[in-house]
Amino acid sequence: MMEYLRRHRFFPERMRRYKLMRVAGASMAPALASGEMVVVDTRAYRLRGPARGEVVAVRPRGLGGKALVKRVAAVSGRLGPSGGVVPDPGRDEFLLMGDGASSLDSRAFGPVSREELIGRVCFRLWPRPSAV
Length: 132
Description:
Layout: H1 2-7, E1 18-22, E2 37-41, E3 55-58, E4 68-75, E5 93-97, H2 106-109, E6 112-113, E7 117-126, E8 130-131
Antiparallel strand pairs: 1-2, 2-7, 3-4, 3-7, 4-5, 5-6, 7-8
């Protein structure tokens, strides 16, 4: 894997921008399976917030620093997944949901702020590289 990163110039100066994360659990299936490695762009949301449908890495408060990979279901004040308007609890807050039926997501821990976002999941690195 390190050879792949060197060949594609992720190393060393770009390594601060990108993080490798392992997906844990089946909450993002079928898009991402448990055990897959993904590349997260930590600077993706410096100038803009995430859009609905993007896959993000997040470290929600109240979960003891546990990092999760979820899909943005709604941006505060905009239409949510069921077509209703999401309450606007504050600026730059997002509802996140897993693709699977049983998922630890915003239904459990509430909306997340921009500060809690780690970054945008760019692509799957292992076992089969592809865009997310």
